[in-house]
Amino acid sequence: MGGAHGHLLHFHAHSAIHRAPAHLKVVALLVFMITVVATPDDWFAAFGAYLMVLVAVIGLSRVPATYILKRMVVEVPFVLFAVLLPFVARGPRVEVLGLSLSESGLLAAFGLLATATLGVIASLTLAATTEPQALLKGLERLRLPTTLVQIMAFMIRYLSVVTEELRRMHVARVSRGFEARNPRHWPVLAKSFGALFIRSYERGERVHLAMLSRGYTGKMPL
Amino acid sequence: MSTPVLEVRGLAYAYPDGHQALAGVDLHVHQGESVALLGPNGAGKTTLVLHLNGILTAGAGTVSVSGMPVEKEHVQEIRRRVGIVFQDPDDQLFMGTVRADVGFGPANLGLSGAALEARVMTALDLVGMADFADRPPHHLSFGQRRRVAVATVLAMEPEILVLDEPSSNLDPASRRELADILSSLDVTVLMVTHDLPYALELCPRSVVLSDGHVVADGTTYDVLTDDDLMRRHRLELPFGFDPRTVAATLGLGD
Q1: Residue A197 is part of which domain span?
Q2: What's the rounded Cα separation, in Å, for the pair A101 and A3?
Q3: B45-62 pLDDT, tens per residue?
Q4: Are A32 and A124 in the same domain?
């Protein structure tokens, strides 16, 4: 593809991983994740090996490690939950740095963190090495129902439009002296999201009209 | 005279909430004409446009395109003949690449392969966007998106091109570029606009719609210089713009 490339998550480079067919990459990700999730929490060596595999793939793809690391912030909520587990789980306890922690909780936390981290790294690698359009084509080749693929295509297309609308609404709120500082301000945010939902819904209707005007009959022609 | 490309007779339409948007509209557009559809906000312009390709169906009266009545049974053919470019290009462009988007209409008409590709590239050439075929539409500037939106409709080789506010939100340079493109096209045009200088530049004839009625139909010069008519229907020329001097320098009007 010429010109500007893909999305926030896509890293432009020319490598064997970038060139690999998208449907193979999707299947590889799926197989990898099922294997990771099926591995018992206390097979520490196995998790180490999985991580090595990912590091090797990222190395091959020439995507900088920092690029992946920065985008791993999406994992933060899982980390918070995992950190809680050793405190709230029951069973035999161990002393760590003067804190009494649950043994099974520690193991569960490790398992959760390990699978989540591996999953996030693997997904980010797929996203970094695959154009959104190629990904959609790959999913189509894997016989995912076309309706689902179309919904994803529309989502990718309109994500930037809706984000931009959200940003403009934010700027307009701030310009009128509003900053959401505490929960008392949440109703205002909720109303903003409501307005955004209605706008998006109406845009959906206008897009549909424009599609009908160009002869759309309910089936994507391409 | 030959069969008009667009013939609207006694068209009336009320929205479900009872608001009478159109109250007996008559309008003829002949092949090769460029007609501006003027009128204040809420005059029914958009409602009229949505009748032209059968998105809305007439409460009373008829619409026909090159002699074919706009009715359910041949709505596909009507939508090929009438190409509507909507106001917000983000509504019109929804595919992942410019090429796929311009191809959407002709593909719905059953084109594929080399014929489809040729249709797409011809349309993109007409609006000067052929180099952008593989870009995602949301990476283009607003003016470029507007031009691609025009191409999506040109690719269907319509008999009449209907433009809803083509100059809105464009910077002056993009607005002029679009004018150059529109005047270079060999197609019948109906242009809904509030941009009166644009109407004078591109459309020899203007129709004024007000409160669901056609209240004037004549040369754009005559309409814009009829001060009384303009005032009655909330039409106003931009500050400092005088159609008389413009027409005198450019040799327009009478």
Answers
A1: 145-213
A2: 54
A3: 999 999 999 888 888 999
A4: yes
